Amino acid sequence: MSAPVRLDHAPLSAADLEAVARHARPVELSDAARTAMALSRKLVDDTLAAGRVSYGINTGFGVLSHVVIPTDDVARLQQNLIRSHCVGVGPPLAEEVVRGMLLLRADSLARGYSGVRPAVVELLVSMLNRFVTPIVPEQGSVGASGDLAPLAHLASVLVGEGEAMYDGRRVKGGAALAAAGLHPLVLEAKEGLALINGTQAMTSSAALAIRDAERLLEAAQVAAALCLDALKGSLIPFDPRFHAVRPHPGAGLVARHLRVLLADSAIVASHVGCAKVQDPYSLRCAAVVLGASVDALTHVREVAEREMRSVTDNPLCFAEADEILSGGNFHGQPIALILDYLAIAMAEVASISERRTYLVLDGRVSGLSPFLARQPGLQSGLMMAQYTAAALVSENKILAHPASVDSIPTSAGMEDHVSMGMTGAVKLRRILDNVRRVLAVELITGAEGLERHRPLTSGAGAEEAVRRVRRHVAPLTDDRPLSGDIESIAEAIKAGEFELASILGEI
Predict the structure, then answer these.
(1) Would you please indicate which residues are annotated as catalytic (active-site) residues?
(2) pTM, rounded to two decimals
(3) Residues 294, 253: contact at Cβ < 8 Å?
(4) 407-428: pLDDT as tens digits
(5) How far apart are CA 97 and CA 429, in angstroms?
(6) Could you tell me the residue ranges of all domains in the chain?
(7) What angle do CA 378, 382, 384 make, to 5 degrees?
(8) In terms of CATH, what superfamily is 5-198?
(9) In this predicted model, what pLDDT tens digit does every residue of 351-401 receive, in sequence order?
(10) What CA–CA distance (Å, rounded) separates 70 from 76?
(11) How far is the CA of 362 from the CAs of 8, 271, 356, in angstroms?
(12) Cα(358)–Cα(372) distance, rounded to whole angstroms?
């Protein structure tokens, strides 16, 4: 079993989150975190004992923050807060996203600025380790005070309410806890608010999307190499001298990968000195376009991982200064913007991929049989696979419209600017699914196209990629339904079979 992810104030990475959310890596809470939480909790208790009015501890919320709550009702206030904010609708978020939320919420609270008891985080950690996963509806967050509704549905299970998945079944929250040998909490002052103020739903989605996008970008480079050689494209645009004088890191990296994948290709050697002067942009500019998305992902990862080590609820307890301060760390704008940025960057990956597929299937351009059909006319070959890619690319154009440019006031105008980050997160997941299938079409097309040049072979890396395509998809000898082939390659991309380290390590 992997060593646990330890909540000890060290930064979490997107890879850490994926290991917990998707691969069941255990989590543990450090003694240092327990000590920090105890100090901030004492500040909350002292505030109540002294009768000081402090937002969220003994007041109402949002526009009702002027209402002071009697001490006897403070615990009930937290329960009411969770219940009233469980307003999510629509299909549930993927279990992996919710597990990521549990990890991020636990880590943020464990940093010792939220005023919660260690018992709150201990239960979050136990739910992760015993696979109690709250049911969290996808819709209902405007990303203002973070993800209020999604986090309320998550928190409802901690108090024995709501619903959760446990042992493959959807059950009541209390029943899920009991089946896992856990007990619900009775929330104390500040704890309900600390559980639901924050960006953990959109940030969990962002972290998992980053990991998916990393694999997609590597698969895109592999697919580009296959189609480039199938089309007898030139490697000159990937000469390192071009990328030294326009030094965008991503473009230089992609160019190097394409050179490595196609190194010693007999197909490349077969057309050295040919009359063709330049290739279409989807070939000639492949490193520039894909490299821009690589650079975008680098920025997105940097911002997301900064958010992952942040404290995002309100108010915050600074025990060393004996102060509780109310601010706006919960606003989702930093994550909303990068979700939109990644959506645009990955939509472009699919867009240029579809163009290369189109070129390989156009016999007038490729010099191969139209649509790679063995008997054109009698057979349609891969013609309709390009239609699917085109449909998904066009859908992405709509989905890539940024959610973060929208805002709508809530809470009687107190929350007068919102981020719409969860809308961006939901759209991004669909875009990534579409990109995966578009790249699957290109990989199938590129493998088929390369094989039409036999006995000439491509570079060793490209040939390894062809072998991996053939593990799942047989050569096209006659017309057949292709939906299953596309989905099989899409799943292989998701599983990491077309990661560069994996492919190049096999040669």
Answers:
(1) 55
(2) 0.96
(3) yes
(4) 999 888 888 899 999 999 999 9
(5) 11
(6) 5-198, 206-505
(7) 95
(8) Fumarase/aspartase (N-terminal domain) (1.10.275.10)
(9) 999 999 999 999 999 999 999 999 999 999 999 999 999 999 999 999 999
(10) 10
(11) 57, 19, 10
(12) 11
